[in-house]
Fold this sequence. Notes:
This protein is α+β, with helices and mostly antiparallel strands. Helices cover 30% and strands 38% of the residues. It is built from five helices and seven strands. The chain has a seven-stranded mixed β-sheet, sandwiched between helices. β6 (126-133) and β7 (136-144) form a beta hairpin.
Amino acid sequence: MTLRPATEDDARRLFDWTNDPSTRGVSFNADPIPWDTHVAWLRKKLADRACRLFIAEVDGAPVGQVRLDAAADRATISVSIAKAHRGRGFGVAAIRAATAHAEVIDAFILADNAASVRAFERAGFTFAEDVEIEGRAAVRFEWTKS
């Protein structure tokens, strides 16, 4: 697993991944994202010095995305693996690869998203607390570089 910086050339790939119905179903906002909104968001994230947006690749093939949004001394992680590549441990590998880019990382996961909870646990994150985000039950997991 390698992480390479995302570029505007990845816009269509990221759009397709984020709008996959199963991805939307485990997102805090389940509504599909329009193309124009996605492109504006991507340009903003690519220009944001506090954001690191990566394409996760296995043997040169893109399998998912990882985003780290930094604030103060921590980063919040967002990960998604393309539907065709799920169930093969790529989520855990992408999460582990992302830990090279921050000292402390928070992961916010819908409480009923068992697959993501397992992936973060396997990647070395620990449960920190129950939280509510956008009116939905969630959990916060944490990883600290030791």
